[in-house]
Amino acid sequence: MLLFRQQEKIFILLSRPLLLICSVCFTILLIFYALRAPDSINFTAKNVGYVPSNSSSSLHPPAKEDEKCNLFKGRWIWDEKGPLYTNFSCKTIPDKKNCFLHERMDKDFVHWRWKPDECELPVFDPRSFLSIARGKTMAFIGDSVSRNQMESLLCLLSTEETPKDVYKDAKDRFRTWHFPHYNFTMMSLWSRFLVTSSQTIVNGSVTGGFDVHLDKVDDNWAPKLPVVDYAIFSDAQWFLRQNYLYEGGNLIGCIYCQEPNVTDLGPGLAIQRAFRTAFKYINDCKNCFGILTLLRTISPSQFENGTWKTGGSCVRTSPLAPEEIQDAGGADMEYRNIQMAEIESARKRGEKIGNRFDVLDVTGAMLMRPDGHPGLHWRNKKKGYSDCVHWCLPGPIDVWNEFLLEVLRRQSHFPLRSR
Ligand SMILES: *[C@@H]1O[C@H](CO)[C@@H](O)[C@H](O)[C@H]1NC(C)=O
Ligand SMILES: *[C@@H]1O[C@H](CO)[C@@H](O)[C@H](O)[C@H]1NC(C)=O
Ligand SMILES: *[C@@H]1O[C@H](CO)[C@@H](O)[C@H](O)[C@H]1NC(C)=O
Ligand SMILES: *[C@@H]1O[C@H](CO)[C@@H](O)[C@H](O)[C@H]1NC(C)=O
Ligand SMILES: *[C@@H]1O[C@H](CO)[C@@H](O)[C@H](O)[C@H]1NC(C)=O
Ligand SMILES: *[C@@H]1O[C@H](CO)[C@@H](O)[C@H](O)[C@H]1NC(C)=O
Protein backbone atom coordinates (compact mmCIF):
# COMPACT_ATOMS: atom_id res chain seq x y z
CA MET A 1 0.00 0.00 0.00
CA LEU A 2 2.75 2.36 1.02
CA LEU A 3 4.71 1.42 -2.02
CA PHE A 4 1.70 2.08 -4.12
CA ARG A 5 1.28 5.51 -2.50
CA GLN A 6 4.90 6.35 -3.21
CA GLN A 7 4.61 5.28 -6.77
CA GLU A 8 1.56 7.44 -7.07
CA LYS A 9 3.43 10.39 -5.57
CA ILE A 10 6.30 9.93 -7.96
CA PHE A 11 3.87 9.70 -10.78
CA ILE A 12 2.19 12.94 -9.71
CA LEU A 13 5.54 14.67 -9.30
CA LEU A 14 6.61 13.53 -12.73
CA SER A 15 3.32 14.24 -14.36
CA ARG A 16 2.83 17.79 -13.14
CA PRO A 17 5.32 19.43 -15.48
CA LEU A 18 4.13 17.08 -18.17
CA LEU A 19 0.57 18.22 -17.58
CA LEU A 20 1.67 21.82 -17.67
CA ILE A 21 3.52 21.32 -20.94
CA CYS A 22 0.53 19.49 -22.38
CA SER A 23 -1.91 22.16 -21.43
CA VAL A 24 0.35 24.88 -22.80
CA CYS A 25 0.62 22.97 -26.06
CA PHE A 26 -3.10 22.47 -26.16
CA THR A 27 -3.76 26.16 -25.59
CA ILE A 28 -1.34 27.10 -28.34
CA LEU A 29 -3.04 24.65 -30.65
CA LEU A 30 -6.44 26.08 -29.82
CA ILE A 31 -5.27 29.63 -30.48
CA PHE A 32 -3.66 28.49 -33.69
CA TYR A 33 -6.87 26.95 -34.95
CA ALA A 34 -8.95 29.87 -33.78
CA LEU A 35 -6.74 32.16 -35.86
CA ARG A 36 -6.18 29.90 -38.81
CA ALA A 37 -9.50 28.17 -39.36
CA PRO A 38 -12.10 30.80 -38.69
CA ASP A 39 -14.69 29.59 -41.17
CA SER A 40 -17.96 29.08 -39.47
CA ILE A 41 -19.69 27.16 -42.19
CA ASN A 42 -18.54 23.90 -43.53
CA PHE A 43 -18.68 23.89 -47.30
CA THR A 44 -16.23 21.24 -48.36
CA ALA A 45 -16.50 20.03 -51.91
CA LYS A 46 -18.07 16.76 -50.88
CA ASN A 47 -20.96 18.65 -49.35
CA VAL A 48 -22.15 20.01 -52.66
CA GLY A 49 -25.62 19.20 -53.77
CA TYR A 50 -28.50 21.33 -52.78
CA VAL A 51 -28.72 19.89 -49.28
CA PRO A 52 -25.32 20.70 -47.81
CA SER A 53 -24.46 18.45 -44.90
CA ASN A 54 -24.15 19.81 -41.40
CA SER A 55 -21.15 17.89 -40.25
CA SER A 56 -18.58 20.23 -38.79
CA SER A 57 -14.88 19.69 -39.07
CA SER A 58 -12.97 19.03 -35.87
CA LEU A 59 -10.49 21.70 -36.92
CA HIS A 60 -13.01 24.45 -36.44
CA PRO A 61 -12.96 26.55 -33.30
CA PRO A 62 -15.62 25.59 -30.80
CA ALA A 63 -18.73 27.32 -32.09
CA LYS A 64 -21.79 28.06 -30.07
CA GLU A 65 -24.40 25.38 -30.65
CA ASP A 66 -26.61 27.59 -32.85
CA GLU A 67 -23.62 28.64 -34.95
CA LYS A 68 -23.10 25.13 -36.24
CA CYS A 69 -26.48 25.20 -37.90
CA ASN A 70 -26.55 25.16 -41.68
CA LEU A 71 -28.49 28.32 -42.45
CA PHE A 72 -29.05 27.43 -46.06
CA LYS A 73 -30.90 24.16 -45.66
CA GLY A 74 -34.51 24.74 -44.81
CA ARG A 75 -37.88 25.82 -46.14
CA TRP A 76 -40.16 28.83 -46.40
CA ILE A 77 -42.83 29.15 -43.74
CA TRP A 78 -45.82 31.50 -43.60
CA ASP A 79 -45.16 34.70 -41.71
CA GLU A 80 -48.09 36.89 -40.72
CA LYS A 81 -45.86 39.86 -39.92
CA GLY A 82 -44.68 40.51 -43.44
CA PRO A 83 -41.71 42.50 -44.70
CA LEU A 84 -39.39 44.75 -42.70
CA TYR A 85 -39.92 47.71 -45.03
CA THR A 86 -42.42 48.88 -47.60
CA ASN A 87 -42.29 50.82 -50.83
CA PHE A 88 -43.29 53.77 -48.67
CA SER A 89 -40.68 53.48 -45.90
CA CYS A 90 -37.85 52.74 -48.35
CA LYS A 91 -37.32 55.62 -50.75
CA THR A 92 -34.54 53.97 -52.70
CA ILE A 93 -36.39 50.99 -54.21
CA PRO A 94 -35.57 51.16 -57.91
CA ASP A 95 -38.60 51.53 -60.10
CA LYS A 96 -38.06 48.21 -61.87
CA LYS A 97 -38.17 46.25 -58.61
CA ASN A 98 -41.01 48.19 -57.01
CA CYS A 99 -43.51 45.52 -58.02
CA PHE A 100 -46.45 46.95 -56.08
CA LEU A 101 -46.05 50.23 -57.89
CA HIS A 102 -46.54 48.33 -61.14
CA GLU A 103 -49.79 46.74 -60.17
CA ARG A 104 -48.68 43.49 -58.74
CA MET A 105 -51.87 42.57 -56.89
CA ASP A 106 -50.98 39.40 -54.98
CA LYS A 107 -49.19 40.20 -51.72
CA ASP A 108 -48.66 36.76 -50.19
CA PHE A 109 -45.15 36.54 -51.55
CA VAL A 110 -43.86 39.02 -48.93
CA HIS A 111 -45.26 36.83 -46.14
CA TRP A 112 -42.81 33.96 -46.15
CA ARG A 113 -39.85 33.60 -43.84
CA TRP A 114 -36.89 31.31 -44.34
CA LYS A 115 -36.68 28.65 -41.68
CA PRO A 116 -33.39 26.71 -41.51
CA ASP A 117 -34.10 23.10 -40.53
CA GLU A 118 -32.01 23.18 -37.37
CA CYS A 119 -32.20 26.72 -36.03
CA GLU A 120 -33.85 30.07 -36.41
CA LEU A 121 -32.53 32.70 -38.79
CA PRO A 122 -32.66 35.94 -36.79
CA VAL A 123 -34.83 38.71 -38.22
CA PHE A 124 -32.64 41.37 -39.83
CA ASP A 125 -31.53 43.89 -37.24
CA PRO A 126 -30.07 47.01 -38.87
CA ARG A 127 -28.37 48.15 -35.68
CA SER A 128 -26.48 44.85 -35.24
CA PHE A 129 -25.50 44.96 -38.87
CA LEU A 130 -24.13 48.49 -38.69
CA SER A 131 -22.37 47.82 -35.40
CA ILE A 132 -20.50 44.89 -36.89
CA ALA A 133 -19.78 46.81 -40.09
CA ARG A 134 -18.74 50.04 -38.34
CA GLY A 135 -15.83 51.70 -40.12
CA LYS A 136 -15.81 49.01 -42.80
CA THR A 137 -16.26 49.01 -46.55
CA MET A 138 -18.43 46.43 -48.29
CA ALA A 139 -18.45 45.83 -52.03
CA PHE A 140 -21.08 43.94 -54.01
CA ILE A 141 -19.23 42.71 -57.06
CA GLY A 142 -21.23 41.28 -59.92
CA ASP A 143 -24.15 41.94 -62.24
CA SER A 144 -27.55 43.50 -61.73
CA VAL A 145 -28.65 40.71 -59.39
CA SER A 146 -25.72 41.62 -57.15
CA ARG A 147 -26.97 45.20 -57.33
CA ASN A 148 -30.42 43.89 -56.39
CA GLN A 149 -28.99 42.56 -53.11
CA MET A 150 -27.37 45.89 -52.32
CA GLU A 151 -30.69 47.65 -52.96
CA SER A 152 -32.38 45.28 -50.53
CA LEU A 153 -29.70 45.95 -47.91
CA LEU A 154 -30.10 49.67 -48.43
CA CYS A 155 -33.82 49.39 -47.64
CA LEU A 156 -33.15 47.21 -44.60
CA LEU A 157 -30.52 49.59 -43.20
CA SER A 158 -32.41 52.80 -43.97
CA THR A 159 -34.72 52.17 -41.03
CA GLU A 160 -31.69 52.78 -38.78
CA GLU A 161 -29.81 55.49 -40.64
CA THR A 162 -30.39 57.36 -43.88
CA PRO A 163 -27.32 56.83 -46.02
CA LYS A 164 -25.62 59.47 -48.12
CA ASP A 165 -25.50 58.92 -51.84
CA VAL A 166 -21.78 59.39 -52.41
CA TYR A 167 -21.17 58.29 -55.96
CA LYS A 168 -23.03 57.29 -59.08
CA ASP A 169 -21.55 56.86 -62.54
CA ALA A 170 -23.26 57.97 -65.74
CA LYS A 171 -24.74 54.54 -66.48
CA ASP A 172 -25.61 53.98 -62.81
CA ARG A 173 -23.60 50.79 -62.69
CA PHE A 174 -21.28 51.88 -59.93
CA ARG A 175 -22.81 53.28 -56.83
CA THR A 176 -21.48 54.16 -53.38
CA TRP A 177 -23.44 54.85 -50.21
CA HIS A 178 -22.08 55.99 -46.88
CA PHE A 179 -23.67 55.72 -43.43
CA PRO A 180 -21.99 58.60 -41.58
CA HIS A 181 -22.92 57.65 -38.03
CA TYR A 182 -21.41 54.18 -38.42
CA ASN A 183 -18.84 55.23 -41.01
CA PHE A 184 -19.95 52.28 -43.08
CA THR A 185 -19.43 52.38 -46.83
CA MET A 186 -21.29 50.18 -49.24
CA MET A 187 -20.68 50.03 -52.98
CA SER A 188 -21.76 48.09 -55.99
CA LEU A 189 -19.12 47.34 -58.58
CA TRP A 190 -20.52 46.22 -61.88
CA SER A 191 -18.90 43.19 -63.48
CA ARG A 192 -20.56 40.85 -65.94
CA PHE A 193 -18.08 38.02 -65.66
CA LEU A 194 -15.66 39.05 -62.86
CA VAL A 195 -13.05 38.77 -65.61
CA THR A 196 -12.40 40.99 -68.63
CA SER A 197 -14.83 40.89 -71.49
CA SER A 198 -15.79 42.79 -74.61
CA GLN A 199 -18.73 42.43 -76.90
CA THR A 200 -18.25 39.92 -79.69
CA ILE A 201 -18.32 41.69 -83.02
CA VAL A 202 -19.03 39.76 -86.19
CA ASN A 203 -19.00 41.51 -89.52
CA GLY A 204 -18.95 44.87 -87.77
CA SER A 205 -22.00 44.40 -85.55
CA VAL A 206 -22.52 43.15 -82.01
CA THR A 207 -23.97 39.68 -81.49
CA GLY A 208 -25.20 39.94 -77.89
CA GLY A 209 -22.40 37.61 -76.85
CA PHE A 210 -19.00 38.40 -75.36
CA ASP A 211 -15.35 37.59 -75.75
CA VAL A 212 -14.44 36.56 -72.21
CA HIS A 213 -10.84 36.47 -71.01
CA LEU A 214 -11.08 33.89 -68.26
CA ASP A 215 -7.59 34.54 -66.88
CA LYS A 216 -7.74 38.36 -66.75
CA VAL A 217 -9.39 39.91 -63.76
CA ASP A 218 -11.92 42.67 -64.46
CA ASP A 219 -10.58 46.18 -63.81
CA ASN A 220 -14.06 47.27 -62.78
CA TRP A 221 -13.43 45.85 -59.33
CA ALA A 222 -9.86 44.65 -58.90
CA PRO A 223 -8.19 48.06 -58.30
CA LYS A 224 -10.76 48.85 -55.57
CA LEU A 225 -9.95 45.77 -53.53
CA PRO A 226 -7.35 47.37 -51.23
CA VAL A 227 -10.02 49.55 -49.59
CA VAL A 228 -12.54 46.71 -49.26
CA ASP A 229 -13.11 44.74 -46.04
CA TYR A 230 -16.06 42.64 -47.18
CA ALA A 231 -16.24 41.55 -50.82
CA ILE A 232 -19.40 39.80 -51.96
CA PHE A 233 -18.92 38.05 -55.29
CA SER A 234 -21.64 36.71 -57.52
CA ASP A 235 -22.34 36.29 -61.26
CA ALA A 236 -23.72 33.62 -63.50
CA GLN A 237 -26.45 34.87 -65.84
CA TRP A 238 -24.15 36.46 -68.42
CA PHE A 239 -22.31 33.17 -68.82
CA LEU A 240 -25.47 31.54 -70.09
CA ARG A 241 -25.34 32.96 -73.58
CA GLN A 242 -23.23 32.64 -76.70
CA ASN A 243 -19.78 33.72 -75.54
CA TYR A 244 -16.25 33.10 -76.77
CA LEU A 245 -13.71 32.03 -74.18
CA TYR A 246 -10.06 33.06 -74.11
CA GLU A 247 -7.07 32.11 -72.02
CA GLY A 248 -3.62 33.62 -72.52
CA GLY A 249 -5.19 35.65 -75.31
CA ASN A 250 -6.08 32.52 -77.29
CA LEU A 251 -9.54 31.28 -78.12
CA ILE A 252 -10.04 28.06 -76.17
CA GLY A 253 -13.70 27.48 -76.94
CA CYS A 254 -17.14 28.92 -76.64
CA ILE A 255 -20.46 28.68 -74.87
CA TYR A 256 -23.43 27.68 -77.06
CA CYS A 257 -21.79 28.69 -80.36
CA GLN A 258 -22.40 25.64 -82.56
CA GLU A 259 -19.48 26.32 -84.84
CA PRO A 260 -17.66 23.35 -86.31
CA ASN A 261 -14.19 24.69 -85.55
CA VAL A 262 -14.82 25.94 -81.97
CA THR A 263 -15.34 23.62 -79.00
CA ASP A 264 -18.41 24.30 -76.91
CA LEU A 265 -17.05 24.17 -73.36
CA GLY A 266 -20.35 25.13 -71.74
CA PRO A 267 -21.12 27.70 -69.02
CA GLY A 268 -19.81 25.50 -66.18
CA LEU A 269 -16.17 25.63 -67.21
CA ALA A 270 -16.32 29.37 -67.81
CA ILE A 271 -17.92 30.00 -64.40
CA GLN A 272 -15.29 27.84 -62.75
CA ARG A 273 -12.35 29.62 -64.40
CA ALA A 274 -13.73 33.12 -63.83
CA PHE A 275 -14.31 32.58 -60.11
CA ARG A 276 -10.93 30.88 -59.83
CA THR A 277 -9.26 33.93 -61.38
CA ALA A 278 -11.13 36.32 -59.09
CA PHE A 279 -10.33 34.40 -55.89
CA LYS A 280 -6.72 33.87 -56.94
CA TYR A 281 -6.40 37.62 -57.40
CA ILE A 282 -7.60 38.17 -53.83
CA ASN A 283 -5.12 35.70 -52.39
CA ASP A 284 -2.27 37.14 -54.48
CA CYS A 285 -3.17 40.78 -53.77
CA LYS A 286 -0.20 42.38 -52.02
CA ASN A 287 -1.87 45.57 -50.80
CA CYS A 288 -5.13 43.97 -49.64
CA PHE A 289 -5.68 43.39 -45.93
CA GLY A 290 -7.45 40.39 -44.46
CA ILE A 291 -10.49 40.59 -46.71
CA LEU A 292 -13.59 38.60 -45.90
CA THR A 293 -14.73 37.30 -49.26
CA LEU A 294 -18.23 35.94 -49.62
CA LEU A 295 -19.55 33.95 -52.54
CA ARG A 296 -23.22 34.55 -53.18
CA THR A 297 -24.14 31.44 -55.13
CA ILE A 298 -26.15 31.50 -58.35
CA SER A 299 -29.61 33.00 -58.20
CA PRO A 300 -31.85 31.05 -60.58
CA SER A 301 -33.77 32.73 -63.36
CA GLN A 302 -37.22 31.18 -63.39
CA PHE A 303 -39.03 31.56 -66.67
CA GLU A 304 -41.76 29.05 -67.28
CA ASN A 305 -43.45 28.21 -70.56
CA GLY A 306 -40.70 29.80 -72.60
CA THR A 307 -37.60 31.95 -72.40
CA TRP A 308 -37.61 35.68 -71.76
CA LYS A 309 -38.06 36.46 -75.42
CA THR A 310 -40.49 33.68 -76.30
CA GLY A 311 -43.19 34.68 -73.88
CA GLY A 312 -41.79 32.90 -70.82
CA SER A 313 -43.23 34.16 -67.55
CA CYS A 314 -43.25 33.73 -63.81
CA VAL A 315 -46.81 33.99 -62.54
CA ARG A 316 -46.74 31.84 -59.43
CA THR A 317 -47.94 33.41 -56.19
CA SER A 318 -46.56 31.03 -53.58
CA PRO A 319 -43.25 29.29 -52.85
CA LEU A 320 -42.38 25.68 -53.56
CA ALA A 321 -41.58 23.12 -50.91
CA PRO A 322 -38.06 21.63 -51.09
CA GLU A 323 -39.50 18.44 -52.61
CA GLU A 324 -41.13 20.42 -55.40
CA ILE A 325 -37.91 21.80 -56.86
CA GLN A 326 -37.73 20.45 -60.37
CA ASP A 327 -34.88 18.20 -61.34
CA ALA A 328 -33.20 18.81 -57.93
CA GLY A 329 -32.13 22.24 -59.16
CA GLY A 330 -30.69 21.01 -62.48
CA ALA A 331 -28.10 23.27 -64.09
CA ASP A 332 -28.44 25.93 -61.37
CA MET A 333 -27.28 23.40 -58.79
CA GLU A 334 -24.49 22.29 -61.07
CA TYR A 335 -23.16 25.87 -61.36
CA ARG A 336 -23.66 26.44 -57.65
CA ASN A 337 -21.58 23.35 -56.91
CA ILE A 338 -18.83 24.60 -59.21
CA GLN A 339 -18.81 27.96 -57.42
CA MET A 340 -18.73 26.26 -54.01
CA ALA A 341 -15.76 24.12 -55.01
CA GLU A 342 -13.84 27.22 -56.15
CA ILE A 343 -14.37 29.17 -52.96
CA GLU A 344 -13.46 26.13 -50.91
CA SER A 345 -10.07 25.84 -52.60
CA ALA A 346 -9.55 29.60 -52.29
CA ARG A 347 -10.33 29.31 -48.58
CA LYS A 348 -7.72 26.61 -48.07
CA ARG A 349 -5.08 28.82 -49.66
CA GLY A 350 -6.28 32.11 -48.24
CA GLU A 351 -6.63 31.26 -44.59
CA LYS A 352 -2.88 30.75 -44.38
CA ILE A 353 -2.38 34.45 -45.16
CA GLY A 354 -5.21 35.90 -43.08
CA ASN A 355 -7.90 36.01 -45.78
CA ARG A 356 -11.28 34.58 -45.08
CA PHE A 357 -13.85 33.05 -47.37
CA ASP A 358 -17.43 32.16 -46.65
CA VAL A 359 -20.70 31.70 -48.52
CA LEU A 360 -24.19 33.03 -48.92
CA ASP A 361 -25.51 29.81 -50.40
CA VAL A 362 -28.83 31.17 -51.63
CA THR A 363 -29.44 28.84 -54.58
CA GLY A 364 -31.53 26.20 -52.78
CA ALA A 365 -33.71 28.76 -51.03
CA MET A 366 -34.31 30.76 -54.21
CA LEU A 367 -35.15 27.71 -56.30
CA MET A 368 -38.23 27.57 -54.06
CA ARG A 369 -39.25 31.18 -54.84
CA PRO A 370 -40.42 31.43 -58.44
CA ASP A 371 -43.10 33.75 -57.01
CA GLY A 372 -40.59 36.42 -55.99
CA HIS A 373 -39.76 38.00 -59.38
CA PRO A 374 -41.26 41.13 -60.90
CA GLY A 375 -42.65 39.13 -63.84
CA LEU A 376 -44.67 41.66 -65.84
CA HIS A 377 -44.70 44.18 -63.00
CA TRP A 378 -41.67 46.24 -63.86
CA ARG A 379 -42.78 49.17 -66.00
CA ASN A 380 -42.33 47.31 -69.22
CA LYS A 381 -45.84 46.32 -70.05
CA LYS A 382 -45.71 47.48 -73.65
CA LYS A 383 -43.08 44.99 -74.67
CA GLY A 384 -44.76 42.29 -72.65
CA TYR A 385 -41.52 40.73 -71.48
CA SER A 386 -41.36 39.25 -68.01
CA ASP A 387 -38.49 39.76 -65.60
CA CYS A 388 -37.99 36.40 -63.91
CA VAL A 389 -34.33 37.10 -63.08
CA HIS A 390 -34.38 39.97 -60.59
CA TRP A 391 -36.39 40.05 -57.39
CA CYS A 392 -39.14 42.33 -56.11
CA LEU A 393 -38.38 44.68 -53.21
CA PRO A 394 -39.49 43.92 -50.61
CA GLY A 395 -39.37 40.21 -51.37
CA PRO A 396 -37.55 36.94 -50.84
CA ILE A 397 -34.18 38.49 -51.79
CA ASP A 398 -34.22 40.23 -48.40
CA VAL A 399 -33.25 36.90 -46.85
CA TRP A 400 -29.85 37.16 -48.54
CA ASN A 401 -29.07 40.01 -46.19
CA GLU A 402 -30.32 38.08 -43.19
CA PHE A 403 -27.86 35.38 -44.24
CA LEU A 404 -25.24 38.08 -44.68
CA LEU A 405 -25.74 39.47 -41.19
CA GLU A 406 -25.62 36.03 -39.63
CA VAL A 407 -22.42 35.14 -41.52
CA LEU A 408 -20.84 38.46 -40.50
CA ARG A 409 -21.89 37.84 -36.92
CA ARG A 410 -20.30 34.39 -36.92
CA GLN A 411 -17.17 35.72 -38.62
CA SER A 412 -16.93 38.68 -36.24
CA HIS A 413 -15.56 36.36 -33.55
CA PHE A 414 -12.41 36.51 -35.66
CA PRO A 415 -11.71 40.20 -36.19
CA LEU A 416 -10.34 41.25 -39.55
CA ARG A 417 -6.64 41.90 -39.54
CA SER A 418 -6.21 45.64 -39.17
CA ARG A 419 -4.60 47.75 -41.86
C1 LIG B 1 -27.70 17.09 -39.36
O1 LIG B 1 -28.03 17.16 -37.99
C2 LIG B 1 -29.20 16.49 -37.63
C3 LIG B 1 -29.51 16.75 -36.16
O2 LIG B 1 -28.37 17.23 -35.49
C4 LIG B 1 -29.05 15.00 -37.93
O3 LIG B 1 -30.24 14.31 -37.63
C5 LIG B 1 -28.75 14.84 -39.42
O4 LIG B 1 -28.50 13.49 -39.71
C6 LIG B 1 -27.54 15.65 -39.80
N1 LIG B 1 -27.35 15.60 -41.23
C7 LIG B 1 -26.19 15.33 -41.79
C8 LIG B 1 -26.19 15.28 -43.27
O5 LIG B 1 -25.17 15.15 -41.14
C1 LIG C 1 -46.55 51.41 -53.07
O1 LIG C 1 -47.39 50.37 -53.49
C2 LIG C 1 -48.75 50.73 -53.64
C3 LIG C 1 -49.54 49.48 -53.98
O2 LIG C 1 -49.41 48.54 -52.94
C4 LIG C 1 -48.87 51.78 -54.70
O3 LIG C 1 -50.22 52.18 -54.84
C5 LIG C 1 -48.03 52.97 -54.34
O4 LIG C 1 -48.04 53.90 -55.39
C6 LIG C 1 -46.60 52.56 -54.06
N1 LIG C 1 -45.89 53.70 -53.52
C7 LIG C 1 -44.65 54.02 -53.85
C8 LIG C 1 -44.08 55.23 -53.22
O5 LIG C 1 -43.97 53.35 -54.63
C1 LIG D 1 -14.02 55.76 -41.58
O1 LIG D 1 -13.59 54.54 -42.10
C2 LIG D 1 -12.50 54.63 -42.97
C3 LIG D 1 -12.21 53.25 -43.51
O2 LIG D 1 -13.33 52.78 -44.23
C4 LIG D 1 -11.30 55.19 -42.24
O3 LIG D 1 -10.22 55.35 -43.13
C5 LIG D 1 -11.66 56.52 -41.63
O4 LIG D 1 -10.61 56.99 -40.85
C6 LIG D 1 -12.91 56.40 -40.80
N1 LIG D 1 -13.32 57.71 -40.34
C7 LIG D 1 -13.63 57.97 -39.09
C8 LIG D 1 -14.08 59.37 -38.80
O5 LIG D 1 -13.57 57.13 -38.20
C1 LIG E 1 -20.28 37.76 -92.32
O1 LIG E 1 -20.19 38.23 -93.64
C2 LIG E 1 -19.87 37.22 -94.58
C3 LIG E 1 -19.68 37.88 -95.91
O2 LIG E 1 -20.62 38.87 -96.15
C4 LIG E 1 -21.00 36.19 -94.61
O3 LIG E 1 -20.70 35.16 -95.51
C5 LIG E 1 -21.16 35.61 -93.21
O4 LIG E 1 -22.26 34.72 -93.16
C6 LIG E 1 -21.38 36.72 -92.18
N1 LIG E 1 -21.34 36.11 -90.86
C7 LIG E 1 -22.30 36.30 -89.99
C8 LIG E 1 -22.15 35.59 -88.70
O5 LIG E 1 -23.25 37.00 -90.21
C1 LIG F 1 -14.19 29.14 -87.72
O1 LIG F 1 -14.77 29.07 -89.00
C2 LIG F 1 -15.33 30.28 -89.48
C3 LIG F 1 -15.99 30.01 -90.80
O2 LIG F 1 -15.20 29.18 -91.62
C4 LIG F 1 -14.28 31.37 -89.56
O3 LIG F 1 -14.86 32.58 -89.96
C5 LIG F 1 -13.65 31.54 -88.22
O4 LIG F 1 -12.58 32.47 -88.28
C6 LIG F 1 -13.13 30.20 -87.68
N1 LIG F 1 -12.69 30.38 -86.33
C7 LIG F 1 -11.53 29.93 -85.92
C8 LIG F 1 -11.22 30.17 -84.48
O5 LIG F 1 -10.74 29.34 -86.63
C1 LIG G 1 -47.75 27.29 -68.46
O1 LIG G 1 -48.70 26.93 -69.47
C2 LIG G 1 -49.72 26.09 -69.00
C3 LIG G 1 -50.56 25.68 -70.22
O2 LIG G 1 -50.84 26.78 -71.01
C4 LIG G 1 -50.53 26.82 -67.95
O3 LIG G 1 -51.54 25.96 -67.46
C5 LIG G 1 -49.60 27.20 -66.80
O4 LIG G 1 -50.29 27.98 -65.85
C6 LIG G 1 -48.42 27.99 -67.32
N1 LIG G 1 -47.50 28.17 -66.22
C7 LIG G 1 -46.94 29.31 -65.96
C8 LIG G 1 -46.05 29.34 -64.76
O5 LIG G 1 -47.09 30.30 -66.64
UniProtKB/TrEMBL annotation:
The keyword Membrane applies. Residues 67-120 form the Trichome birefringence-like N-terminal domain. Its main location: membrane. It is found in: Membrane. The keyword Thylakoid does not apply. The chain crosses the membrane at residues 12-35. It comes from the Eukaryota. InterPro entries: TBL, TBL_C, TBL_N. Residues 121-406 form the Trichome birefringence-like C-terminal domain. It is a single-pass membrane protein. Keywords: Membrane, Signal-anchor, Transmembrane, Transmembrane helix. One of its GO terms (cellular component) is membrane. Pfam families: PC-Esterase, PMR5N. One of its GO terms (molecular function) is O-acetyltransferase activity. PANTHER family: PROTEIN TRICHOME BIREFRINGENCE-LIKE 9-RELATED, XYLOGLUCAN O-ACETYLTRANSFERASE 2. Belongs to the PC-esterase family. TBL subfamily. This is Xyloglucan O-acetyltransferase 3-like. It comes from Coffea arabica (Arabian coffee).
